[in-house]
Design goal:
Blueprint lengths: L14 E5 L3 E5 L7 E5 L2 E5 L5 E5 L8 E4 L5 H13 L2 H4 L2 E6 L5 E5 L4 E5 L4 H11 L6 E3 L7 E3 L2
Parallel strand pairs: 3-6, 6-7, 9-10
Antiparallel strand pairs: 1-2, 3-4, 4-5, 7-8, 8-9, 10-11
Length: 155
Amino acid sequence: RDRDVTGVQTCALPIFSREWPDGVLIQVTERRAVAVVEMGGRYQAMDSDGVLFRTYAHPPAGMPRVVSTTAVSSQALAEAASVIAALPSGLAARVDHVGVRGVGQVTLTMRSGATVLWGNDTQSALKAEVLVRLLARPARSYDVSVPGQPVTTPR
């Protein structure tokens, strides 16, 4: 009967509150995968906070993919999750995967093979808007880390 849910990977932090006169209300929120992280040859679900919570044998179809090293911090993974959330669906469909090497080091690899230096997750909506416009011009790489001064490298 009694069960500690704080160690259950698919549950976010439970919220406990008292119900007078003699009850306790426990609210548990299930983690939802926003991306699958490829790390060290394993595939793990990642929630919007960058928490890894489930292992997959193969990456689920249609889920954004994040490629990283095992040494990357949860803060860096949270940044990648924030970037993914900011991508409009049309742009997200053109992304092969999101790379993250550390905090402020987020990149996108487009299905076309082009790379995008995103940087950190600040101004992600603006960066996405700028990138959509830049993609009209084929290039080898795009830098939207400073969205007011984007840079492209020709093919």
